[in-house]
Amino acid sequence: MPESIPYGKQDISKSDVSAVVEVLRSDWLTQGPVVPAFENAVREKCKAQFAVAVNSATSALHIACLSLGVGSGDTVWTSPNTFVATANCARYCGASVDFVDIDPDTWCLSIEKLQQKLKEHQASGCSIPKVVIPVHLSGQSCDMQSIYELGQQYGFKIIEDASHAIGGTYQNEPVGNCKYSDITVFSFHPVKIITTGEGGMALTNDPEIHEHMKRLRSHGITSNPKLMTIESSVPWYYEQIELGFNYRMTDIHAALGLSQLERLDEFVEQRNELTQNYEEAFVDDPIQRQVVPEETYSARHLYVIRVQKHQHLSLFKKFGGERIGVNLHYMPVHLQPYYRKLGFQEGNFPEAEKYGKEALSLPMYIKLTSEKQNRVIATLKDFI
Q: What residues contact residue 44 under an 8 Å CB cut-off, 6+ apart?
């Protein structure tokens, strides 16, 4: 029986293990020096001013929304082609969620559809979103300059869900620099580009947003005298000034992330090489592949293909029979039962729905050998 091939997995080196063990043997397991060191390393890598490490990208999305004032009566727009967390973060804040359909070639949020929807809402007197969350699907940045320009015109804030995209670039600048957004969020889940086990980070260039997110990740507590209601001379004094959460990252997780970050460029380069192998193999095959604009260098978290919808399930089963892991990223969020109960239905976002009936993510990870990748390629070609 052939060895199984997962669709994705982490790559842990001896240096990663040593970094974690060093923390385990230190005086600090959490809230020590390694978390800020990891934050500084990521923000410097991405050319951002500030970074807040948390225990998941979902937590980062939540505090990002809260720091931008999202609450009851507000609306957040995002792509239906994403993991549910991107939409759920607005619901955690008591806000409504709506979606913008995807581009048929890049599979990211459609600039044309966003502009059209904004015009229609403005003309009819419907609410303009408080925040728009574009999703960098597969590691490929959305057209952030165009989204930013629409944000300036219509007055909405922007959170980049770059969970797939650390190490990628847009207009020759690193994803995460927040040039065209208020906040950028990364994920460090094990199948992502680099991992902390579980973890996430929010980057921003705004000092007030930075301080607010830091408070929100730790119970809404501050030791800043300028924010306290009572002046105190005792060194241990602190105040909870708002409702926050326990979203902190530990030094153990940060140590792994800091070590992994040293290999980020290598990881992204290898993922692009694996992608090129797929691209060359499938160039003449009747499958659709993601279009990457010239101004974008994708981090290649995923390699997604699209086949005819009548082939979709059969191909999934074909790969399963060969012990090759494939997945769907993603089923349209608006068709999940929770969001159907909020009034969404089939036909609302046809391009995302069509994508969900045709897309499969092929194996993509650092230790994917030529032999295993050739098995994936041969299996697909045999099916075709």
A: none
Which residues are CB-contacts of 214 (< 8 A; sequence separation ≥ 6)? 52
pLDDT digits (tens, 9 = 90+) for 98-117: 999 999 999 999 999 999 99
Q: First vs last Cα of the chain: how many Å apart?
A: 23
Which residues does 167 contact at the CB level (< 8 Å), separation at least 6?
Answer: 139, 174, 175, 193, 194, 264, 265, 267, 268, 299
Q: pTM, whole model, 2 decimals? A: 0.97
> Model confidence over 295-311: pLDDT tens digits?
999 999 999 999 999 99
132 vs 71: CA distance, rounded Å: 14
- Map out the domains of the chain with their CATH numbers: 14-263 (3.40.640.10), 265-383 (3.90.1150.10)
HEC string for 301-326 = CCEEEECCHHHHHHHHHHHHHCCECC
